[in-house]
Design a protein that fits this description.
Residues 85-255 form the Fumarylacetoacetase-like C-terminal domain. Keywords: Lyase. A hairpin with a 2-residue loop joins strand 8 (182-187) and strand 9. The chain starts with a helix and ends with a strand. By secondary structure, it is an alpha+beta fold. It is built from 7 helices and 13 strands. Strands 1, 2, 3, 5, 6, 7, 10 and 11 form an 8-stranded mixed beta sheet that branches. A 5-stranded mixed beta sheet has the order 4-13-12-8-9, with no helix packed on it.
Length: 260
Protein backbone atom coordinates (compact mmCIF):
# COMPACT_ATOMS: atom_id res chain seq x y z
CA UNK A 1 0.00 0.00 0.00
CA UNK A 2 1.07 3.57 -0.64
CA UNK A 3 1.19 6.36 1.90
CA UNK A 4 -1.21 9.30 1.55
CA UNK A 5 1.75 11.42 0.50
CA UNK A 6 2.67 8.98 -2.28
CA UNK A 7 -0.93 8.84 -3.50
CA UNK A 8 -1.13 12.65 -3.66
CA UNK A 9 2.20 12.84 -5.48
CA UNK A 10 0.99 10.28 -8.01
CA UNK A 11 -2.27 12.16 -8.62
CA UNK A 12 -0.39 15.43 -9.09
CA UNK A 13 1.96 13.73 -11.57
CA UNK A 14 -1.04 12.60 -13.63
CA UNK A 15 -2.52 16.10 -13.55
CA UNK A 16 0.77 17.54 -14.74
CA UNK A 17 1.02 14.95 -17.53
CA UNK A 18 -2.47 15.86 -18.68
CA UNK A 19 -1.70 19.59 -18.68
CA UNK A 20 1.69 19.25 -20.41
CA UNK A 21 0.60 16.45 -22.80
CA UNK A 22 3.72 14.53 -21.82
CA UNK A 23 3.35 10.99 -20.42
CA UNK A 24 4.99 10.15 -17.11
CA UNK A 25 6.66 6.84 -16.19
CA UNK A 26 4.22 4.13 -15.15
CA UNK A 27 3.13 4.55 -11.54
CA UNK A 28 3.66 0.81 -11.11
CA UNK A 29 7.36 1.42 -11.78
CA UNK A 30 7.62 4.56 -9.67
CA UNK A 31 5.73 2.85 -6.83
CA UNK A 32 6.28 -0.93 -7.18
CA UNK A 33 4.21 -1.53 -4.03
CA UNK A 34 1.06 0.13 -5.48
CA UNK A 35 -2.16 -1.86 -5.12
CA UNK A 36 -5.58 -1.56 -6.78
CA UNK A 37 -7.01 0.22 -3.73
CA UNK A 38 -4.23 2.79 -4.05
CA UNK A 39 -4.97 3.21 -7.75
CA UNK A 40 -8.64 4.04 -7.17
CA UNK A 41 -7.69 6.48 -4.42
CA UNK A 42 -5.22 8.17 -6.78
CA UNK A 43 -8.05 8.44 -9.30
CA UNK A 44 -10.19 10.11 -6.60
CA UNK A 45 -7.44 12.63 -5.89
CA UNK A 46 -6.91 13.28 -9.60
CA UNK A 47 -10.64 13.97 -9.96
CA UNK A 48 -10.59 16.30 -6.98
CA UNK A 49 -7.82 18.25 -8.69
CA UNK A 50 -9.80 18.54 -11.92
CA UNK A 51 -12.97 19.53 -10.07
CA UNK A 52 -11.04 22.22 -8.18
CA UNK A 53 -10.22 23.74 -11.57
CA UNK A 54 -13.87 23.88 -12.62
CA UNK A 55 -14.72 20.47 -14.05
CA UNK A 56 -17.87 18.63 -12.97
CA UNK A 57 -18.49 14.89 -12.78
CA UNK A 58 -21.04 14.10 -15.51
CA UNK A 59 -21.03 10.33 -15.06
CA UNK A 60 -18.89 7.23 -15.16
CA UNK A 61 -17.15 4.94 -17.65
CA UNK A 62 -16.56 1.21 -17.49
CA UNK A 63 -13.51 -0.43 -19.01
CA UNK A 64 -12.10 -3.93 -19.44
CA UNK A 65 -15.55 -5.36 -20.14
CA UNK A 66 -14.31 -8.00 -22.56
CA UNK A 67 -12.80 -11.26 -21.35
CA UNK A 68 -9.84 -10.82 -23.69
CA UNK A 69 -8.95 -7.43 -22.19
CA UNK A 70 -9.35 -8.75 -18.65
CA UNK A 71 -6.98 -11.62 -19.38
CA UNK A 72 -4.47 -9.25 -20.96
CA UNK A 73 -4.62 -7.08 -17.83
CA UNK A 74 -4.62 -10.07 -15.47
CA UNK A 75 -7.97 -8.94 -14.05
CA UNK A 76 -11.13 -10.89 -13.36
CA UNK A 77 -13.50 -7.91 -13.55
CA UNK A 78 -13.86 -4.53 -15.29
CA UNK A 79 -12.57 -1.20 -13.99
CA UNK A 80 -14.20 2.22 -13.87
CA UNK A 81 -13.46 5.92 -14.10
CA UNK A 82 -15.21 9.27 -14.20
CA UNK A 83 -16.66 11.27 -17.09
CA UNK A 84 -16.03 15.00 -16.71
CA UNK A 85 -18.26 17.59 -18.33
CA UNK A 86 -15.40 19.42 -20.02
CA UNK A 87 -14.62 16.25 -21.98
CA UNK A 88 -18.12 15.79 -23.43
CA UNK A 89 -18.65 16.42 -27.16
CA UNK A 90 -21.66 16.19 -29.49
CA UNK A 91 -22.08 14.55 -32.87
CA UNK A 92 -20.32 16.58 -35.56
CA UNK A 93 -17.77 18.14 -33.22
CA UNK A 94 -14.38 19.25 -34.44
CA UNK A 95 -11.95 18.17 -31.74
CA UNK A 96 -8.35 19.24 -31.34
CA UNK A 97 -6.14 16.16 -31.43
CA UNK A 98 -3.53 17.97 -29.32
CA UNK A 99 -5.91 17.87 -26.34
CA UNK A 100 -4.67 14.29 -25.94
CA UNK A 101 -1.34 12.48 -25.83
CA UNK A 102 -2.08 9.40 -27.96
CA UNK A 103 -5.84 9.26 -28.55
CA UNK A 104 -7.78 6.19 -29.67
CA UNK A 105 -11.50 5.64 -30.28
CA UNK A 106 -13.90 2.94 -29.12
CA UNK A 107 -17.57 2.26 -29.99
CA UNK A 108 -19.97 2.10 -27.04
CA UNK A 109 -23.47 2.72 -25.75
CA UNK A 110 -24.17 5.43 -23.20
CA UNK A 111 -26.86 4.99 -20.53
CA UNK A 112 -28.59 8.16 -19.32
CA UNK A 113 -29.94 7.62 -15.83
CA UNK A 114 -33.58 8.51 -15.21
CA UNK A 115 -33.32 8.01 -11.46
CA UNK A 116 -30.73 7.40 -8.77
CA UNK A 117 -29.50 3.83 -8.57
CA UNK A 118 -27.43 2.29 -5.80
CA UNK A 119 -26.42 -1.18 -4.65
CA UNK A 120 -25.91 -3.65 -3.27
CA UNK A 121 -27.19 -6.56 -5.37
CA UNK A 122 -28.12 -4.44 -8.39
CA UNK A 123 -28.97 -6.54 -11.47
CA UNK A 124 -29.52 -5.95 -15.17
CA UNK A 125 -33.26 -5.38 -14.79
CA UNK A 126 -32.65 -2.77 -12.09
CA UNK A 127 -30.39 -0.90 -14.50
CA UNK A 128 -32.94 -1.09 -17.32
CA UNK A 129 -35.68 0.17 -14.99
CA UNK A 130 -33.58 3.12 -13.81
CA UNK A 131 -32.29 4.11 -17.26
CA UNK A 132 -34.22 6.82 -19.10
CA UNK A 133 -32.40 6.77 -22.44
CA UNK A 134 -29.63 4.95 -24.29
CA UNK A 135 -27.62 6.71 -27.00
CA UNK A 136 -24.74 5.81 -29.32
CA UNK A 137 -21.40 7.04 -28.05
CA UNK A 138 -17.72 7.09 -28.86
CA UNK A 139 -15.12 7.05 -26.15
CA UNK A 140 -11.76 8.68 -26.75
CA UNK A 141 -9.22 6.88 -24.61
CA UNK A 142 -5.82 8.30 -23.75
CA UNK A 143 -2.82 7.35 -21.63
CA UNK A 144 -1.10 9.84 -19.34
CA UNK A 145 1.62 7.31 -18.54
CA UNK A 146 4.12 5.40 -20.60
CA UNK A 147 3.36 1.87 -21.81
CA UNK A 148 3.13 -1.05 -21.26
CA UNK A 149 0.86 -0.47 -18.29
CA UNK A 150 -0.18 -2.54 -15.32
CA UNK A 151 -3.84 -2.49 -14.29
CA UNK A 152 -2.96 -0.14 -11.43
CA UNK A 153 -1.62 2.36 -13.97
CA UNK A 154 -4.84 2.25 -15.95
CA UNK A 155 -7.13 2.63 -12.92
CA UNK A 156 -5.15 5.50 -11.43
CA UNK A 157 -5.23 7.19 -14.85
CA UNK A 158 -9.04 7.44 -14.68
CA UNK A 159 -9.40 4.12 -16.53
CA UNK A 160 -7.75 5.73 -19.60
CA UNK A 161 -10.68 8.11 -20.15
CA UNK A 162 -10.03 10.97 -22.54
CA UNK A 163 -13.43 12.21 -23.77
CA UNK A 164 -16.88 11.09 -24.88
CA UNK A 165 -18.89 11.88 -28.02
CA UNK A 166 -22.66 11.29 -28.06
CA UNK A 167 -25.12 11.38 -30.96
CA UNK A 168 -27.37 9.22 -33.10
CA UNK A 169 -30.90 8.26 -32.14
CA UNK A 170 -32.04 8.49 -28.53
CA UNK A 171 -33.88 5.32 -27.56
CA UNK A 172 -35.64 4.06 -24.46
CA UNK A 173 -34.16 0.91 -22.90
CA UNK A 174 -36.96 -1.33 -24.14
CA UNK A 175 -37.22 0.16 -27.65
CA UNK A 176 -34.89 -2.51 -29.04
CA UNK A 177 -33.01 -5.54 -27.75
CA UNK A 178 -29.87 -3.65 -26.77
CA UNK A 179 -27.80 -6.83 -26.73
CA UNK A 180 -27.87 -6.86 -30.52
CA UNK A 181 -27.03 -3.30 -31.44
CA UNK A 182 -24.27 -3.49 -34.02
CA UNK A 183 -21.95 -0.75 -35.22
CA UNK A 184 -19.17 -0.08 -37.69
CA UNK A 185 -16.36 2.39 -37.04
CA UNK A 186 -14.90 4.15 -40.09
CA UNK A 187 -11.80 6.31 -40.30
CA UNK A 188 -11.40 8.49 -43.37
CA UNK A 189 -14.01 6.46 -45.22
CA UNK A 190 -12.57 3.02 -44.43
CA UNK A 191 -14.27 0.65 -41.98
CA UNK A 192 -11.66 -0.14 -39.34
CA UNK A 193 -13.76 -2.01 -36.76
CA UNK A 194 -17.20 -3.52 -36.23
CA UNK A 195 -18.92 -5.20 -33.33
CA UNK A 196 -22.12 -5.99 -31.48
CA UNK A 197 -23.10 -4.75 -28.03
CA UNK A 198 -23.58 -8.26 -26.60
CA UNK A 199 -19.78 -8.40 -26.52
CA UNK A 200 -19.99 -6.22 -23.40
CA UNK A 201 -20.36 -8.87 -20.69
CA UNK A 202 -23.22 -10.52 -22.58
CA UNK A 203 -25.46 -7.48 -22.08
CA UNK A 204 -24.47 -3.77 -21.98
CA UNK A 205 -26.46 -3.26 -18.77
CA UNK A 206 -24.42 -5.95 -17.01
CA UNK A 207 -21.45 -3.62 -16.77
CA UNK A 208 -23.62 -0.85 -15.38
CA UNK A 209 -24.98 -3.20 -12.71
CA UNK A 210 -21.41 -4.17 -11.82
CA UNK A 211 -20.49 -0.48 -11.53
CA UNK A 212 -23.43 0.30 -9.23
CA UNK A 213 -22.41 -2.46 -6.85
CA UNK A 214 -18.76 -1.35 -6.91
CA UNK A 215 -19.72 2.26 -6.18
CA UNK A 216 -21.90 1.10 -3.28
CA UNK A 217 -18.85 -0.52 -1.71
CA UNK A 218 -17.16 2.89 -1.53
CA UNK A 219 -20.26 4.86 -0.55
CA UNK A 220 -21.24 5.96 -4.06
CA UNK A 221 -24.14 5.55 -6.48
CA UNK A 222 -25.36 6.57 -9.93
CA UNK A 223 -27.39 9.77 -9.94
CA UNK A 224 -30.32 10.89 -12.08
CA UNK A 225 -29.06 12.56 -15.25
CA UNK A 226 -25.60 11.00 -15.15
CA UNK A 227 -24.09 9.34 -18.22
CA UNK A 228 -22.60 5.87 -18.01
CA UNK A 229 -20.37 4.53 -20.79
CA UNK A 230 -21.10 0.82 -20.70
CA UNK A 231 -17.90 -0.49 -22.32
CA UNK A 232 -16.50 -0.90 -25.79
CA UNK A 233 -17.61 -3.55 -28.27
CA UNK A 234 -14.82 -2.82 -30.75
CA UNK A 235 -11.05 -2.68 -30.50
CA UNK A 236 -9.62 0.85 -30.17
CA UNK A 237 -8.64 2.70 -33.34
CA UNK A 238 -5.75 5.19 -33.38
CA UNK A 239 -6.66 8.75 -34.35
CA UNK A 240 -4.68 11.84 -35.26
CA UNK A 241 -5.16 15.36 -36.57
CA UNK A 242 -6.88 15.29 -39.96
CA UNK A 243 -8.88 12.11 -39.29
CA UNK A 244 -12.63 12.00 -39.94
CA UNK A 245 -14.51 9.39 -37.91
CA UNK A 246 -17.96 7.92 -38.55
CA UNK A 247 -19.71 5.33 -36.39
CA UNK A 248 -22.83 3.78 -37.91
CA UNK A 249 -25.23 2.04 -35.53
CA UNK A 250 -27.78 1.10 -38.20
CA UNK A 251 -31.38 1.61 -36.99
CA UNK A 252 -30.33 3.82 -34.07
CA UNK A 253 -28.39 6.26 -36.19
CA UNK A 254 -24.82 7.39 -36.65
CA UNK A 255 -22.39 9.93 -35.28
CA UNK A 256 -19.22 11.46 -36.56
CA UNK A 257 -16.39 13.74 -35.48
CA UNK A 258 -13.30 15.19 -37.05
CA UNK A 259 -9.92 15.90 -35.49
CA UNK A 260 -7.96 19.08 -36.07
Amino acid sequence: MLTDEERRAAAQALLTAEEDRVPIPQLSKTYPHIEIEDAYRIQDLWAEGRIAKGARVAGHKIGLTSRAMQMASKMTEPDYGRILDDALFNDGAQIRADLFIKPRLEVELAFIMGEDLEGPSTRIYDVMRATEFIVPALEIIDYRTEVPRAITDTIADNAAFGAIVVGGRVIRPMDVDIRWIGATLSKNGIIEESGVSAAVMGHPAAGVAWLVNKLHAVGGKLEKGQIVLAGSFTRPVDIAAGDVIQADYGPIGALGVSFL
